[in-house]
Amino acid sequence: MATTVTEERNTEEVKKKRSPIFLIILILLVGGGTWFGLSKYFHGKHHEETDDATIEANVSPVISRVSGYVLSVNVADNQYVHKGDTLMVLDPRDLEIVLKQAEAALSTAKSNLSSAQANSNAASKTIGTSQAAVATADAQIQAAKVNETRTAQDLQRYENLIKDHSITQQQYEQAQAAHELAVRQIQILEDQKRQASVQTGVVSSQSAATSTQTGVASSIIKQREVDVENAKLNLSYTVIIAPESGIVSKVPIQPGQLVQTGSSLFSIVLSNDKWVVANFKETQYNKMAVGQKVTVHVDAIPNHDFDAVLSSFSPATGSKFALLPPDNASGNFVKVVQRLPVKIDFTNKSDSLIQKLRAGMNVSVDVHLD
Predict the structure, then answer these.
(1) What are phi and psi of 258, to 5 degrees?
(2) What is the pLDDT of residue 161?
(3) Where are the domains of the chain?
(4) 169 in helix, strand or coil?
(5) Taken in order 45, 50, 54, 56, is the CA torsion positive or negative?
(6) I want to staple 359 with a disulfide (CB 3.0 to 4.6 A). Which of 57, 222, 262, 276 is the partner?
(7) Can you tell me the distance from the alpha carbon of 318 to that of 226, in angstroms, rounded to the nearest whole number?
(8) Is 196 helix (H, G, I), strand (E, B) or coil?
(9) CATH top-level class for 93-235?
(10) What is the DSSP-derived secondary structure letter of residue 302?
């Protein structure tokens, strides 16, 4: 009887061991693994993926073009600003003094030009007077020569008449004196003409010098006008405005702080565009091409995929743009798979969630190769 009971128990244990549950679970696991492996295999044939990707945006640095002490700061951290909004104001008093000095120098240059022009006009009038004197002397010389010719002829006739005692000695001497006076008059007039000519030359030289001074004064005025414009431009730089619309980064500047020319004060992340830069392995690059569809998944916004397109490839790998690029010609060589930056643009600009994206966010990208 005991043997029969034992056999029945063994039979029940064998039936339990032959239960199909274990086999079913095993089949499901093998089938699920096979399906997962095949799906990944076929997916990998038509897709390239990477999670080495981030959101990028244009970042505009706010730079001071002049040195000065900060008078006021009109923005706060993470504040949205529009293009042309006043961000900071520097103390303008030093530059206002420079502008006044430039304006005073311009006024002095204009006064010098007026004086040079007055001297030039006076010299021109003097030249005209001298030239008129020369012309008058020429006319007088011609009249004196006519008179000298006439007296010479009279003297010759009187010489013939005195030989015949037809005239008195006094009449002859008067004719001789008249001729000598005519000759002397010509010499005096020629001396006056020479003096007038010399004076004309001197005045002409003075006029040329005055014209040169006028030209120099005009050039100085142009230089002073440039100085005034430069001073006004530098004065306008004391008001620092937003170059574009966007969100201000951390603002470390405080009133009273001295800023230097060309120093970067803070940055503005522009709101005009956002894109993705994904760093694919060089072994993934073969089948990728510009224009392929891309699905972008942002870690900060789960359960939402963004439509995008592959727009361009970097001309070199990321290591070539590093501060210290690798030099494989020195030391021991270890082959490292390089990554190539790829730019991906969003295609659905109407997606409101794009506005929530911030530069530097981690994303995963899936490039559709077909």
Answers:
(1) -90, 125
(2) 66
(3) 48-91+247-368, 93-235
(4) helix
(5) negative
(6) 57
(7) 46
(8) helix
(9) mainly alpha
(10) T
